[in-house]
């Protein structure tokens, strides 16, 4: 009889899951720990409208593994579609050998036999990428589906940015028009999460800590032509700097001294938490870079007023809007988008030539 138990997670598992996250830092030149205090399930409900989390327990050790395959509505080929999103695959370092991964994926396979999911893996996460390419027969096929760039815009330099008379915070009376504009423009990008603006400010956990006034609207000739929101997620989702590669550790003081001149982000002290605002729900008429640049100026100014050190945003690496954020001092994180399935024929009609949208606030 196996000494392992794999089962759906319950609310009482939060402490065990938080402990597992703390033990499984993301490796790379900058070592990151993704935390979910005070409750693991707060962030899970923001990533998926229908969370589905599985845990592996071992007697005497608690939770030693987990994966999430929740569902959310995203635009696929222009149509709202319920799609699974795979995330938070974690195995405690003490149990990463042997058959732990095999057992976890055995359960995963039972749940995903006739479905497919989207998953995003950081370029520096070599362990996950090597697992994807291992060819193990318990794993689904991971079909490459695009490249994403997350850009952390530095807000260290205070700039006198004049108010734009055509940009204003959204109001309740704007919701119907915002919804119509969003549904029309967001549908052009694959994997764009669907939004229901009437739910913002409600007790729906998918919209935790968002207010309608956190969205900013560009109006031209009375028409909404650009829309984006700011989201402060530090109350339920944190990123901790766990360490640096040896060379970067030694170069950090010299690099940080240069950032005072360049305006780039400094490398934080080990064990510190990043404080940034998430730029999300970016929709622009005709995906026009000029309109986005105009809106971004106001969003940067607002994030600075909220004492954020950086503004985090993500785009398809092919997206013309990415060129606008690259004009600002910052730091890039590359990631790869995959479709994971045991039946590749299920995604034959998925148009991957379309621009995609990685809503990093929900990853």
TrEMBL record:
Lineage: superkingdom: Bacteria
Organism field: Thalassolituus pacificus
Record lineage: Bacteria, Pseudomonadati, Pseudomonadota, Gammaproteobacteria, Oceanospirillales
Matches recorded under SUPFAM superfamilies: Acyl-CoA N-acyltransferases (Nat)
Name used for this protein in its record: N-acetyltransferase domain-containing protein
């Amino acid at each position: 009889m196996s000494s392992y138990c794999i089962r759906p997670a319950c609310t009482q598992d939060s402490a065990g899951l938080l402990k597992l996250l703390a033990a499984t830092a993301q490796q790379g030149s900058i070592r990151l720990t993704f935390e979910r205090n005070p409750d693991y399930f707060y962030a899970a409900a923001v990533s998926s409208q229908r969370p589905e989390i599985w845990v592996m327990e071992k007697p005497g050790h608690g939770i030693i593994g987990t994966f999430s395959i929740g569902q959310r509505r995203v635009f696929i080929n222009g149509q709202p579609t319920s799609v699974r999103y795979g995330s938070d695959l974690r195995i405690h370092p003490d149990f990463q050998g042997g058959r732990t991964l095999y057992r976890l994926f055995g359960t995963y396979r039972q749940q995903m036999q006739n479905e497919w999911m989207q998953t995003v893996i950081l370029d520096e996460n070599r362990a996950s990428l090597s697992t994807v390419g291992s060819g193990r027969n318990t794993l689904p096929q991971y079909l490459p589906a695009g490249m994403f760039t997350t850009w952390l815009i530095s807000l260290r330099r205070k700039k006198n940015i004049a108010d734009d008379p055509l940009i204003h915070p959204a109001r309740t009376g704007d919701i119907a028009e915002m919804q119509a504009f969003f549904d029309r423009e967001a549908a052009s990008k694959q994997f764009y999460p669907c939004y229901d603006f009437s739910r913002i400010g409600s007790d729906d956990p998918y919209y935790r800590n968002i207010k309608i006034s956190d969205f900013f609207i560009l109006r031209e000739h009375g028409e909404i032509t650009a829309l984006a929101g700011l989201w402060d997620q530090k109350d339920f989702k944190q990123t901790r700097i766990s360490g640096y590669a040896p060379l970067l550790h030694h170069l950090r003081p010299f690099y940080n001294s240069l950032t005072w001149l360049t305006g780039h982000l400094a490398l934080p002290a080990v064990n510190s938490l990043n404080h940034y605002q998430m730029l999300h729900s970016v929709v622009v008429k005709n995906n026009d870079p000029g309109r986005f640049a105009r809106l971004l100026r106001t969003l940067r100014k607002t994030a600075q007023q909220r004492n954020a050190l950086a503004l985090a945003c993500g785009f398809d690496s092919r997206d013309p809007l990415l060129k606008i954020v690259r004009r600002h001092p910052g730091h890039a994180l590359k990631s790869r988008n995959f479709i994971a399935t045991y039946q590749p024929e299920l995604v034959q009609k998925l148009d991957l030539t379309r621009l995609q949208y990685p809503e990093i606030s929900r990853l």
